[in-house]
Design a protein that fits this description.
By secondary structure, the protein is of the alpha+beta class. Among the domains are: 51-59 and 260-339, Efflux pump adaptor protein, beta barrel domain (Elongation Factor Tu (Ef-tu), domain 3, Beta Barrel); 62-93 and 227-256, Beta Barrel (OB fold (Dihydrolipoamide Acetyltransferase, E2P)); 95-225, Orthogonal Bundle (Helix Hairpins), CATH 1.10.287. The chain contains three helices and 22 strands. The strands form five sheets. A six-stranded antiparallel β-barrel has the order 2-11-14-13-12-15. The radius of gyration is 54 Å and the shape is rod-shaped.
Length: 418
């Protein structure tokens, strides 16, 4: 009986051992052996890019300022509104400027009437001077005649050929003629002086007209400046003034970004700048729209780097007019510096072996074999260029945890191809 019990015990132990061995085989086959994907290297177009982080800005930003002081009557546009060049942004109360314009126009009319009156006076003085000059010439002739007559009758008187009374009459006639000539000469001089005065008044009146015209232009400009207009097609990004506010000349009222001038000012490590050039294509991704890619171009590269961060500022201009951009919002850029068609593998296949060797695992039978690879372009699409190390056609292993994969390890193929 004891022998039977011993045999049964031995059988039971053997069965347990067999169960454990079967379980181990099952676990190794189904759980311990790594299940991997196998793919082939393919020839495809690749792009080498340089990465940078920056903020949205613009090439042309204008703080539109008031050119006259006054109270804001209306602000018809708000932030985010698109405006055309010359469109009214702010309306300032123009009552004072309109009154000044009307007053200047009245002053111009008065000055023009005054000038016309002075010109009429000068014309009349000219006519009177012609009459006075004629009178003076006539009186001069009469005076000369009477002078000669007086001298002749004096000789006759001295020779007792005429009576003294006749001589006295001739002398009196000469005296009267001389007085009339003197009066005519004095009148001509007075008219000449008056003409000079009127000429001065004419110049002053002409000056008053010019000043009135200048005042009209200034008042008209102020009336025009009371409507603050957009300097170019663009977008209002900020308002500094509201209805009812009193502003001074020179005070900014709105900030406008010129249409088509938005860019991203990105900061790129100087060590990556060797291939970056103005005009290169770039991809812009806004932080608030991680799934949207905007096309752009390298517009400007600053030539002075930051001493602390060792970065350069690179401005990437949007290719098209993007709606609803916000100044200073964060964005990342990817600048395409070069590109070519080459043999490539998914970047997730890259592995590292001992001594810092970089490469891939290929499948030979059911075993992994490490191949040292020289890599080139790392494309943002998730592929990496293979410069050397693969002949083509190898079965390349891809595993979710490549760092856990070991050389000469038995693996099971879960999926072939991409």
């Amino acid at each position: 009986m004891k022998e039977v019990i011993a045999i049964l015990r031995s059988v039971r132990v053997l069965i347990i051992i067999l169960i454990i061995a079967a379980a181990a085989i099952f676990l190794k086959a189904n759980f311990l052996v790594k299940k991997v994907d196998v793919i082939k290297a393919v020839s495809m177009p690749l792009k080498e890019t340089v990465f940078g982080v920056g903020y949205v800005g613009a090439e042309v930003i204008s703080d539109v300022a008031a050119q006259v002081s006054g109270k804001i009557e209306r602000t018809p546009l708000a932030e985010g509104a698109e405006v055309k060049s010359g469109e009214v942004l702010i309306i300032i109360d123009a009552a004072e400027f309109n009154n000044a314009l009307d007053s200047a126009k009245v002053n111009l009319q008065k000055a023009e009437a005054q000038l016309e009156s002075i010109k009429t006076n000068i014309s009349m003085i000219g006519e009177n001077m012609a009459i006075a000059r004629s009178n003076m010439e006539k009186s001069s002739a009469v005076m000369e005649f009477n002078r000669k007559e007086t001298a002749r009758y004096k000789s006759l008187l001295d020779s007792n050929q005429v009576a003294p009374k006749i001589y006295d009459e001739k002398q009196m006639a000469y005296t009267v003629a001389a007085r009339e000539h003197s009066n005519a000469s004095a009148a001509l001089k007075i008219l000449a002086i008056e003409k000079e005065k009127q000429a001065v008044s004419e110049k002053l009146a002409a000056s008053d007209i010019e000043n009135a015209k200048i005042s009209i232009k200034q008042a008209a400009l102020k009336c025009e400046y009371s409507r603050i207009r957009a300097p170019f097609d663009g977008v209002i990004v900020k308002r500094f003034a509201e209805e009812g506010m009193v502003i001074n000349s020179g005070s900014p009222v709105m900030r406008i970004v010129k249409k088509g001038s938005y860019w991203v000012s990105s900061y790129i490590d100087i060590s990556q700048m060797h291939g970056v050039r103005a005009g290169q294509s770039a991809e812009i991704i806004l932080n608030r729209q991680p799934g949207v890619k905007y096309a752009g171009k390298v517009f400007r590269i600053e030539q002075e780097g930051d001493k602390i961060t060792e970065e350069l500022k690179v401005d990437i201009l949007f290719d098209s007019n993007i709606q609803n951009l916000y100044l200073d919002e964060k964005a990342e850029v990817h600048i395409e510096t070069s590109g070519r068609t080459a043999l490539a593998i998914p970047s997730s296949c890259a592995a590292a072996a001992a001594e810092g060797r970089k490469g891939v695992f290929v499948l030979e039978g059911s075993k992994t074999v490490f191949k040292k690879i020289e890599f080139g372009i790392v494309d943002r699409s998730g592929f990496t260029e293979v410069l050397s190390g693969l002949a083509g056609g190898e079965s390349i292993v891809r595993f979710d945890e490549m760092h856990k994969l070991r050389e000469n390890e038995t693996v099971a193929v879960k999926k072939e191809g991409f």
